[in-house]
Amino acid sequence: MLKLVAACTLAVMTGADGELLAQEGSLQKTPFTSTTTFSVITPPDPNFIPMAVLSARAEEWMPGVDVDMVMAPSGDPSAMRAMLYSRSADFALFSVLGGSRFYSSGMSNLSLVGVHVWKGVYLAAQESVTSVEKLNGERLIAVPAIMTPSHMVANHALRSKGIRADFVSGGGGPVLMAQLSRPESAPAGFVAPEPMVSIILQRQQKENWPIRYRVIMDSQDAASPETGETPLGGLWVVDPERIGSKKDAARKFVEGFGKAVDYVGDPRNVDEVARIVSVAMKEIYGQNAPASVYRSMLQSGRLKLDFRKADAVESVITSELKRIYDVSIDANLFRSVL
Length: 338
Hints:
The chain has about 350 residues and is an alpha/beta fold.
């Protein structure tokens, strides 16, 4: 409060150009700095990881710009649609598939800035399952729900192998853990994004579950064998009017986000990133997974983050979404105000 009062007093004493008349009669420049804060919808999946790191390093990587992370309704497309329609944030981190569908349905305020999540969805099966072919006709849990990207990319990969699984929505939290850990309710396997895969794998060891799971399929490798990756999570403009009125700050934010993605991918930063993400997940989503879970995830190679601007990957996104999800994209989706 004292700092605020001092700043206000200085502003009154100085002119619009920030000049202060000193007692000696000389003019002394006093800089005035302000912070632009962008709100960013950030779900508890791979999208969250670079955003948590950027929030922690904002002063260093994008001086004059800050971020507020907004909770996202994981696994609830209708709730996400409502948030985006009402422009309850400036930016959003969520699936390339979901945003493309929302745009096609008339949500023209959306535009894609870039894609940063290229690998992060996996199929795990009970340890007794020897191959994915054994899952044909079996019940699998989709985390957080069916018709989300984690389910759809895995289902496409399985169907390309002639496997038809019976997917059901799994949700999250205690209910999901109870289903997975009890012999009477355990599915043959589950499909989930990181960091949930790592959380489950560590928890089954710690709690000595009678049912154990192991990763049996890399959904990206199976769905896109030529590249081993597919566009999963992207950075979206939600409120183009506000972003357009603060382009310099918005571009600084995008640059900072790219730095955060690179920082997460550097093996030298694993311990710091794991600690930051663990704390942020607890503060925002109430997830109590220790830093060791995120450290294990980062070291496993199951997560691939690489921020690529939308115009550079337009053709890849267009072809992949058509091939995997049979979704056609309007080219205007790639034309953001930035």
